[in-house]
Amino acid sequence: MARLFIVRHGQASFGEANYDRLSDLGWQQARWLGEYFGERELDFHRVVAGSLQRQQDTAKGILEGMARVGADVSTHPGLNEYDGEMMYRAFTGSGDQHVHQARDFKDYWRTFRAAYEAWIDDRLTDVTETWGDFGQRIENAIDHACEGAGRDDAVLVVTSGGVIGSALTRLLEGPERGAIHLNFQFRNTAFCEVIVGSSARRVLNFNNAPHLERPGRRHALTHV
User: Fold this and answer.
1) pLDDT digit of tens for each residue in the chain (224 aa)?
2) Where are the domains of the chain?
3) FRET partner for 124 with CA separation of 20 to 30 A, picked from 34, 36, 94, 104?
4) What's an example GO cellular component term for this entry (predicted)?
């Protein structure tokens, strides 16, 4: 059976004007993951990332670590993260998300989680994408990534935590709100491995970061 590796992007630039940019540590996390994949002698049949900069650059960093600089990275916008600002604005009626983060970080996250729950429950109005639409576009993107993969092939998908949370919730047939927990637990450049069969997909492991769980790298276990 083919194997699908779904990777969350490296550490981005949380709290800065442009979050969608890998930090120096984010680049290093990606390269270390590439080195780990190289040690496992993985040769990906296809590499697909969302169109966000942090996703694209993570894929490039992984390939750099595998000594495959310049290898092709396909782009599928269905792997892009949900619009957090849309959720926050629809829930609070305010666009001052970053001001809220700076003023009271803990209260901001409580508010954001409540907004996330309301989005999943279809209680938000004036949104550009529903929870159901989000899940469907992710499923379509993963179908595209796995298309044509043979039983001995490996496929690499680079995306974001919210996408992974939604995808795994569907695969595990879990409660919809469980996607929030999976999202917030997923570490930067951690991966899950999915067995892809002709008629079913099964989660083999979740939130793995063996490339970071090595001496001198504990500082690189990050979540944002």
Assistant:
1) 899 999 999 999 866 667 899 999 999 999 999 999 999 999 999 999 999 999 999 999 999 999 998 889 999 999 999 999 999 999 999 888 888 988 998 999 999 999 999 999 999 999 999 999 999 999 999 999 999 999 999 999 999 999 999 999 999 999 999 999 999 999 999 999 999 988 889 999 999 999 999 999 999 999 98
2) 2-82+130-220, 83-128
3) 104
4) cytoplasm
Question: Cα–Cα distance between 199 and 1 in angstroms, integer?
Answer: 11
Dist CA 11 CA 27 (whole Å): 8
Q: Rounded to whole angstroms, how far apart are CA atoms 159 and 209?
A: 15
Identify which of 69, 177, 156 has the alpha carbon closest to the alpha carbon of residue 113: 177
Query: What's the CATH code, domain 2-82+130-220?
Result: 3.40.50.1240
> Residue 173, Cα to own-chain centre: how many angstroms?
19
For 134, residues 6+ apart whose C-beta sits below 8 A from its C-beta are 82, 162, 166
